[in-house]
Amino acid sequence: MDTLLGPLLQLAPHLANGISLGLLFALIALGFMLIVGVMETINLAHGSLFALGMYVALFVAAPKLGWFPELQAAYLALPVGTRYAVALFAAPLVVGVFGLLLELCLRRTYGRDPLYGLLLTFGAALVIEELIRLTWGSNEQQLPLPQSISGAFMLGDLIYSRYRVFASAFAILAIAALWLFLERTPYGAIIKAGAHDSEMVRALGINLSRLRSAVFALGVALAAIAGVVMAPIWGIRPQVGVDAVVPAFLIIVLGGVGSLWGAVIAGLLVGLVVGLTGAYASEWSLMSMYLLFIAVVTFRSRGLFGKKSALDA
Amino acid sequence: MSQTKESRIVLPTRRKLLKASGLALASATPFFGPWAHNRVWAQSAQAKPLVIGLTMDASGQYAASGGEERLGAMMAIKEFNDKGGVLGRRIEAIHMDTETTPATGSRVAERMITRNEVAFLVGALHSGVANAISQVAQKYGCVFMNTNSSSPTEAGKDCHRTKFVWDGNGTNFAHAIVKNAIKVNGRNWVLLTNDYVWGHNTSKATRAIVEANGGKIVEELLVPQNTRDFSSYLLKLQQLKPQVVATAVGGDDIKALRQQVVQLNLQKSMAWINNQQDWPDVYGLGPESIFGVFGTTWYYRLDLPGVKEFVAGYQKQFPGMAIKVPGNVYHNAYMCTRELLRCVEEAGSTNNLAVIKKLEGRRMSAKDRMQHFDAWIDPTTHQVQQTIYMASYNDAPAEKDDIFKILANVDPKEVVDADSVKSCKLETYEATPSYQQ
Q1: Last residue of some domain: B250, B272, B296?
Q2: B83 within 8 A of B403, measured Cβ to Cβ
Q3: Which value does ipTM take for this structure?
Q4: Given this model, what pLDDT does residue B106 score?
Q5: Cα–Cα distance measured from residue A258 to residue B104, given in angstroms and rounded to the nearest whole number
Q6: Statement to judge: residues B255 and B291 lie in one domain
């Protein structure tokens, strides 16, 4: 019994860590999933918008402006927790508005070859990354964290990061909120209907352009939220978006395009696989998500929940 | 006189614009085409510029360091141009992003040599990229100065007659740091290794020195490049409970690792050694993230003649930079480019073999390089043997950027990489194509 218990006890923290990692991956993929599922547009700028969310949060939490020094000093005198909360609220708002502008450019690609949308969002990704570089520079930056969620705590004889627990809990809340929004509100019903049959929705008098704008802005805001949450873990760099867009894309295909729960389950699977290989076969830890992807897509090309969508989750 | 600029601008009609363009084209035509040959001749008679190709990362894992080494090379070029260039030729630099990707490095080198007709190639951080560039450079005979990539293989099994390796390598740093760390911190070590050529070869050197000094490698964890989440590695480390963790992790990966170690307070429960800590990878991270002991080849507050002026020169030439003071990456690129141009001047030619012969075995005084010991280029491996510094976080900084405390400076003679000498087989002069621009 003892011989079995030992390895299990060794394994348990890695399983827990894998689940936490999976929740964060799912959070990163949520916005991407929403835009692909509802608008059938692959938003390659997702990663750059994720990075922009980090930088806007940094600007809000620790502004460095020459103007109104007294006002700035007064703001900086506020507790870090307050400024962090403001950043968590403001970043998705600002990036969401940016998303609205991006969607205006994207409109000309609707109904055309999907390559147009792909190219436009790819171009937007490059532009956003360069804008970040020009505005904030290329160096690594850090988001200030409130004391209550920074540092570590003991879990048995292991130390674990408090912030990771906070981030995982936040990811659960974000997933639940998005599910409730899609399933339990009239706006969610309209979004779902728009994805099922856009012509019918238009015939019912619903402004489809406005609906698409709203969905795109929501997806982009979710990317920004993920950026803010991941900033203290991954660090803030202009090129950090690439690290987000690749797993996000993989997760939504693995889970089945357009499926909310597919994205969540796929995120958890990827997290578990990456976490466990990181501990037991570290050289495979990044490769493992791609191997998982190949294994699943080989037998089920639509992904795990491909037939379902966010709309009938 | 009072007319505003805007009011004077008269927008031409489309027809007028077409007419004017046609006329301009027709009148310009005789100056091209038939005269092309003479134009080339005329240019060379006026001493065509000497073009240096900067093969430096502007994106990917080493983007930040790539930016710094570019500034170092540009500074050396500027100083030469201020004196009238080299061999009466003005020096021009072209830069292309090598993207921290070996395939891009090859492509950029090929393009710079065949299309841009560069005289020399300068720059590299990622050892895989450096190796790829050096293969192309050797094919054409173009001298390539590897500024900052430090895998022992660069001047070992992957050495080339046309390649000169400017940074201290993983073995040099391991020699400088390991013995003392075993004495002070203990014998049980875990290696945390970036899963590419530099990481592997640096950890290989560390392992050999640890084992030779009675230490034990409990486990080696390979970290794939671009790893952003180190939680599983850090949990594993807690389970392994080593006395020392020796990392060979670089670029953006080491930044993420440092931050996540601090989040878990693991810097306090085990000793950390980072084989080599590049300045751009640690600048701005915050004092708590600069833990452990690490190696470097230069620091901006070394109490040596010329250092203050060198720092002031950087600040004057590049005001408003995010990195306010230069570090080892800038220093290596500057020294490397300056020495290359000095050799061209001494050789009186840009011919590759003439320049190579000037570089091989070259001795550089400590004073000239602002280091504690004289440096030299090993003629059998083409690696610069230079002072290695051991450093840790400075808990009594004299100013905001004074984040390193130099613990020791080690004579290059004490940290020679004997394995490189054995494994490096330079091509003969005869087997190296002649190249001159």
Answers
A1: B296
A2: no
A3: 0.80
A4: 96
A5: 35
A6: yes
Confidence band, pLDDT 50/70/90 cuts, at residue B46: low
Pair B27, B131 in one domain: no
Does residue B215 sit within a domain? Answer: yes
Q: What is the mean pLDDT of residues A212-239?
A: 91
Tell me how far apart the alpha carbons of residues B173 and B256 are, in angstroms, rounded to a whole number.
Answer: 22
- Residue A250: per-residue pLDDT: 94
* pLDDT of the residue at B11: 42
Whether B22 and B134 share a structural domain: no
Residue B285 DSSP symbol: S
Query: Are the beta carbons of A232 and A163 closer than 8 angstroms?
Result: yes
Instruction: Give the C-alpha distances (Å, rounded to integers) separating B246 from A312, B62, B178, B195, B203.
Output: 51, 20, 9, 14, 8
Q: Do B228 and A233 touch (CB under 8 A)?
A: yes
The label of the residue with tokens 């009594």 reads: B396
Residue B347 lies in a domain: yes
Tell me: the pLDDT tens digits for B180-229?
Answer: 889 889 999 999 999 988 899 889 989 999 999 999 999 999 998 888 88
pTM for the predicted model, two decimal places: 0.78
Q: Are A21 and A202 in contact (CB under 8 A)?
A: no
Q: Which pairs from A242-246 meet CB under 8 Å and 24+ separation? A: A242/A47, A243/A47, A243/B226, A243/B228, A244/A28, A244/A46, A244/A47, A244/A50, A244/A51, A245/A32, A245/A44, A245/A46, A245/A47, A245/A48, A245/A50, A245/A125, A246/A47
Would B201 be classed as within a structural domain?
Answer: yes
Q: Inter-chain contact A17–B284, Cβ cutoff 8 Å?
A: no
Helix (H, G, I), strand (E, B) or coil at B349: coil
| Shortest CA distance from A160: residue in chain B | B264
Cβ of A235 and B283 within 8 Å?
Answer: no
With an 8 Å Cβ cutoff, is B241 touching chain A? no
* Assigned token pair, B408: 């020791």
Asked if the C-beta of A291 comes within 8 angstroms of chain B's C-beta atoms, the answer is no
Whole-angstrom CA distances from B187 to B70, B176, B193, B216, B233 are 40, 17, 18, 6, 20
Residues belonging to chain B: 437
What are the Cα distances from residue B75, in Å, to B67, B78, B80, B194? 13, 5, 9, 31
pLDDT tens profile A91-133: 999 999 999 999 999 888 888 888 999 999 999 999 999 999 8
Residue B148 has pLDDT above 70, yes or no: yes
Write phi, then psi, for B102 (nearest 5 degrees).
Answer: -55, -40
Burial class (CB in 10 A: 0-12, 13-18, 19+), B167: buried
Residues B162 and B55 in one domain: yes
A29 closest CA partner among A291, A237, A268? A268
Is B315 in the A-facing interface, judged by CB distances under 8 Å?
no
Rounded CA-CA distance B21/B19 in Å is 5
B40 and B69 co-located in one domain: no
B435: in domain: no
A85 to chain B, minimum CA–CA distance in Å? 20
Structural domain including B32 reads 14-45
Instruction: Count up the domains in chain B and report the number.
Output: 3
Cβ neighbours of B235 in A, within 8 Å: 13-14, 17, 158, 160, 279
